[in-house]
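tool=predict chain=A
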Amino acid sequence: MALRYLYTTLLFAFLPSTLLAHSGHDQVTLSPETESDWATRHMAEEHHISNFDPGAFFTLHDFDSSLSWSADEIRRLYGLDDESSKNVDEAKKAEVVRKTLENFDRDGDGLVERDEWLQGWRAGKRLEDFGLGPGHHGDDEYEYEIHHFEKFHDANTREEDLTHPEDIEHFRKHDEMEAAAERQEKLDNMPIVEQNIPQKFRRY
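tool=predict ok
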């Protein structure tokens, strides 16, 4: 758990400076004119970044660092595999992937390469808003911190102050995960009792 908190802290310390470093004519700053752009709103809501360029956006969401977005990465970008999208039918999810590829995959190989993304962006193409939310694609720890802890708490918050329903649910999940890990550890450390092995599987 401590490592996850450290990772998230480093992530927020690093990303803004990296993304802001890519200045140029492709730079996007959140404003009333760009609020309707899904990618811009995604960056603001999911990453708390209001100034970025398309190259930085692509790299941030190139989850396997392959210089291309696969169908699975497009799903993850839009948060389609997140628990919040569990009621979205697969046909709608497939539509998101298909339309994104139609928009940016110029050579039709089923991937959005970085160059294709940049060419599309400069031609005025943008990620479509499919009405499925801002695209939650972090783990539970990340989503809790960025959508709740940062809004309602701060570094001075004491553990006894974490009494919101979101706090309680978050730590309930942690307790369940830790209990499951402890049970598994006990099972892993149990010696094999020969008497419990069915006769036909015993070796003599």
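Residues 1-25, 29-34 have pLDDT under 50 and may be disordered. Helices lie at 2-20, 38-47, 54-60, 71-77, 90-104, 114-122, 140-152, 165-189.
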